Amino acid sequence: MQTVGKEMSYTLRSDTRFINYRKNKASVGFSATYMGDSLTGGVKFEDKLTINKRGQLVVAGGAVIGRGDVAYGGSLEATLRDKDYPLGRFLSTIGLSVMDWHGDLALGWNAQSQIPIGRSTNLIGRFNLNNKGSGQVSVRLNSSEQLQIALAAFVPLVSKLLGYYQDRDSAY
Fold first, then answer.
1. 3-state DSSP call for residue 165?
2. Helix, strand, or coil here: 171?
3. Pairing, β 69-81 against β 91-101
4. Is 23 left (phi over 0), alpha (psi -120 to 50) or beta?
5. pLDDT averaged over consecutive 10-residue blocks of the chain (172 residues)?
6. Using alpha carbons only, how large is the chain's radius of gyration in Å?
7. N or C end: fewer C-beta atoms under 10 angstroms in the chain?
8. What pLDDT is attached to residue 59?
């Protein structure tokens, strides 16, 4: 139970996993949500196949139904780890997602790579693109030891805030 605005939402979820082989894990789940005067239900499935200690393939799909409408979705994701996994921290993932609602097909592609730089620092790059022509590129530096990297990240933020306040003050 949770409140959404002034209404209460009641959600029931269930998920179960099947490990039919050592390298294959499948799961199935459902959910039902009652809010106001509408009932929404959904089902999902996922199959996670470990190819070797370096590779993994995940296939997922599902559907959501509510107020007579049905939306279908699915995804395919492949992950490649470092040859020295779990000691090595190199990781790359590519994925594809599909959603169909009222005949409107949405496709999404994404890629992510994590590259270790030193003993406790990772460089993570991410790329997303969809069939509507929008996307995102991001680069992130993650460190568990070097405080100066975190402090250096505040420089663009502080300069942007100072520029915002100077622009606002000059408008008055």
1. helix
2. helix
3. antiparallel
4. alpha
5. 90 92 91 94 96 93 94 97 84 97 94 90 94 93 72 77 69 59
6. 22
7. C
8. 98
Plot region of 118 (φ>0 → left; ψ -120 to 50 → alpha; else → beta): left
Find out whether 121 and 141 touch, Cβ atoms under 8 Å: yes
Residue 149 CA to residue 141 CA, distance in Å, equals 8
Q: Give the integer Cα–Cα distance in Å for 58 and 46.
A: 7
Longest CA pairwise span in the chain (Å): 69
CA dihedral of 140, 145, 146, 151, whole degrees rounded to 10: 70
H and E: helices and strands count for the chain: 1, 10
In one letter, which amino acid is 84? Answer: D
User: Are the CB atoms for 35 and 10 separated by under 8 Å?
Assistant: yes
